[in-house]
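Troubleshooting log. The previous structure file for this entry was overwritten by mistake, so regenerating from the original sequence record. Sequence copied from the archived sheet and checked twice against the printout by T.R.
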Amino acid sequence: MDETYRKTRLPATRLLAMETMKMGVKAHYVSGFLEIDVTEARRAISEAKCSGTRISFTGWLMKCLASAVKEFPEVNAYRKGRSLYVFETVSVATMVEKELRGEPVPLPYLVKDCGRKSVLDISREIANVKEGDVGEDLVIADRQAARIAKLAVWSPGPLRSLGMRIFFRDPVRKHRMMGTIGVTAVGMFGRSGGWPLPIPNVHPLAVAVGGISRKPFYTGEGNELQQREILNLTLMFDHDVIDGAPAARFSARLIELMESAHGLEQ
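Regenerated output below.
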């Protein structure tokens, strides 16, 4: 009896993702697995939704990351040889799922200069990308990135790998087109806890959003545990760029910002 199967076309974005993962294999990443109380933030997001304002949890996370990076700029850097290029603007890359040819396809999108944008601005930008018409199955980005991506996809495998390595050898170009932080919201599609492990790529900081679960948690008030909504978050730092002590301080500050519902005050 012949096996039945369905043959599908590999999205062009998958080819590009494979190439960036190849470049990330040589990086020396160190991982941190965090538990963060997001009860107040989730409450604020829910209240905003009831009043007609839709705020993205991922967009809020991006704002918190950008605010923490502003205090620890060494995280916002790329290495070239013995030099570090430390950037002022914080741009965060993420994956946005859109339907192309009847199938859901994750497409990369770069939210530029998150530090100057509000949580609502970032949320609206992501929502517009999800609802907008793409027209191409390569990337959601500026025109220059789209042209380069299209050229890379249609190049033979070895030539594509060589070309991308040469092209992204320039830290300034890499920052402009890919940002310095990559966010993967894996856990947003499930209801249980757990820490996803990001795949190494070109970003000096890779962030993976795990699940959110209700569990007893000590808030520092009184002597009793309280039922809180706890987010599992994974941070992966490129140790060639960021030392352990700054990475630990950055992580601690990020937790403070998220647990205080930073950016959701109004």
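The radius of gyration is 19 Å. Archived copy saved in two places this time.
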